[in-house]
Amino acid sequence: MSPAAQTETKLFAPSADTVARAHVNAETYDRMYAASLADPEGFWAEQGKRVDWIKPFTQVKDVNYNFGEVSINWYADGTLNVAANCIDRHLATRGDQTAIIWEPDSPTEPAKHITYKELHGSVCRMANILESLGVRKGDRVVIYLPMIPEAAYAMLACARIGAIHSIVFAGFSPDALAARVNGCDAKVVITADEAPRGGRKTPLKSNADAALLHCKDSVKCLVVKRTGGQTTWIADRDYDYNEMALEASDYCAPAEMGAEDPLFILYTSGSTGQPKGVVHTTGGYLVYAAMTHEITFDYHDGDIYWCTADVGWVTGHSYIVYGPLANGATTLMFEGVPTYPDAGRFWEVCAKHKVNQFYTAPTAIRALMGQGTSFVEKHDLSDLRLLGTVGEPINPEAWNWYNDVVGKGKCPIVDTWWQTETGGHLMTPLPGAHATKPGSAMKPFFGIQPVVLDPQSGVEISGNGVEGVLCIKDSWPGQMRTVWGDHERFQKTYFADYKGYYFTGDGCRRDADGDYWITGRVDDVINVSGHRMGTAEVESALVAHAAVAEAAVVGYPHEIKGQGIYCYVTLMNDREPSDELMKELRTWVRTEIGPIASPDVIQWAPGLPKTRSGKIMRRILRKIAENDFGSLGDTSTLADPSVVDDLIANRANK
Ligand code: 6R9
């Protein structure tokens, strides 16, 4: 984040209308926040009533953050079903209300309006199909689908029968898909023939075919028809969803699940190794997703709410599907991209469906900002009441454009900071309670106790106007419970460095007013267009290529993407650098991981700066990538300091 963002102090107060309408105003925020810390058991017992329980809980919180014995439980003796909470309980009062508005990639294809009643039927049919394929409570199902209603049906169908879903973003490669299918030992992969996006089509089924070559023979593949494009078919492995749905019953009883039974696994990047399977459970997650959705976005009955994320990311889980549907909302699901057929698409869709709350990522705002204001002005945005952002720090320039051009100065902006691991928002201004500052995540949500620690000593830094690493004291119901199959890794990643706290991996500043600013990751995770990427993943993809001896990957500031991927590559002795090889390596990484991991810059590096013990000095590589040669710091501890001069002299000119 630029230093300017951190010193911006102009306050944008909510309008009287916004305050009057809001579920939470300044006074209620202060009172509820204090109560949530003073009596967490009482506070969360009350919030637990947001969902319908089959067997009510009598225990609320049972949490141990001690390294070696970390265990997190909420509402542990209660039972419930997430699909019943997201659908069945609304049928009596809002069966004919639209649950999901689906807007396809192409604006000429008609949108769909799916009522809660219809959603119920489709989810039950999908649940029965999964059962007929042998899926039982606790089994894993991988979902590899475009942004089509069937993606939501599949999630809710799993929840209905107690299967654990793991969604793999449709932009991921066959290799990445296979690793995730194997990682959670899935019984079924749900995919579609093709995924249309931005006027192009990704051959999802053939990607799945390629992935399944590396998976157990018993894995079945359920195929949804999206485009009708040609697919190859393997008898007794591939199943036709559309055909089976015609036969399947539209009733399936919801399974009674324990609050701590896993609801889903979602793979996300960390600073080391391959992506880890973040596990979220049933009761606490749903309470937290529902509560944050209602309060952060100030959702009211009848509102049309749109989150532009993909269900392949946590934002899609909590804020397209589970949070909104638990609240009986109308949630919009968009298959396309912001710039197709032109840079006005978001605003066209907002106008067409009279969207009230709009939630997107800074990278999209920056990309659209570059296209000028005329694309926005063409469309009637008078129904918009609130704007949200998520995924990375937002620079003040983008914030101001969002506020002025899109929100016409009358829509509060909620800059929501949270993570795959946290299940829902941990810090955000609340629209009717807080004046906002461009670029600041402002205030903790109820029950959240952010602390700023000294990175070296791990000691809590009190007072305002301070900066350090961001940790969270104590637990909240939406917190992840473990890493799938590796509780040890869970403890080591989040509870080892700073004992007694949850370590977020982010740095932050608490300004003079006590408001929070996220300053970015303090580990080897980079954030490319709001997508988390471990530099280690890209490095391991690069070194898997026969020409590559060694690779080091860092992030560098990128105007649109926030961060770009900068790769230093050392070739095998017998290979010469060339433009063709550079192209080949780019394609290679795309194939190994997916297009989102495509290197922005590749610099040939005859050597990498290493300590005498062989550790790559990434700090130096980051500075060189940033074109910041004045502050390289001490390079005398390097095994061969001359490699730095060479890297500077040859810094890729991009
Ligand atoms: C929800 C999501 C998490 C990382 C997180 C942080 C960055 C997310 C942010 C933000 C500044 C915000 N991040 N929201 N940074 N301001 N409003 O994005 O989850 O994909 O797991 O990424 O994204 O660095 O640690 P995830």
TrEMBL record:
Question: What does the record give under GO molecular function?
Answer: acetate-CoA ligase activity
Is-annotated flag, keyword Acetylation? yes
State which Enzyme Commission number(s) the record gives: 6.2.1.1
Q: Does the keyword RNA-binding apply?
A: no
Cofactor names: Mg(2+)
* Positions of ATP binding: G391, E392, P393, D415, T416, W417, W418, Q419, T420, D506, R521, R532
Modified after translation how?
A: Acetylated. Deacetylation by the SIR2-homolog deacetylase activates the enzyme.
- Family assignment from sequence similarity: Belongs to the ATP-dependent AMP-binding enzyme family.
Q: Domain AMP-binding enzyme C-terminal: where?
A: 537-615
- Where N6-acetyllysine occurs, the residues are K615
Keywords for the protein's UniProt record, in alphabetical order: Acetylation, ATP-binding, Ligase, Magnesium, Metal-binding, Nucleotide-binding
Q: What does this protein do?
A: Catalyzes the conversion of acetate into acetyl-CoA (AcCoA), an essential intermediate at the junction of anabolic and catabolic pathways. AcsA undergoes a two-step reaction. In the first half reaction, AcsA combines acetate with ATP to form acetyl-adenylate (AcAMP) intermediate. In the second half reaction, it can then transfer the acetyl group from AcAMP to the sulfhydryl group of CoA, forming the product AcCoA.
What is this protein identified as? Acetyl-coenzyme A synthetase
Cited PANTHER family: ACETYL-COENZYME A SYNTHETASE, ACETYL-COENZYME A SYNTHETASE 1
Q: Which residues form the Acetyl-coenzyme A synthetase N-terminal domain?
A: 29-86
CDD domains in the cross-refs? ACS
Reaction(s) the record says it catalyses: acetate + ATP + CoA = acetyl-CoA + AMP + diphosphate
Annotated AMP-dependent synthetase/ligase domain residues: 88-475
Matching Gene3D superfamilies: 3.30.300.30, N-terminal domain of ligase-like (3.40.50.12780)
| Residues bound to Mg(2+) | V543, H545, V548
Chain positions recorded as CoA binding sites:
R197, G198, G199, R200, T315, S529, R590
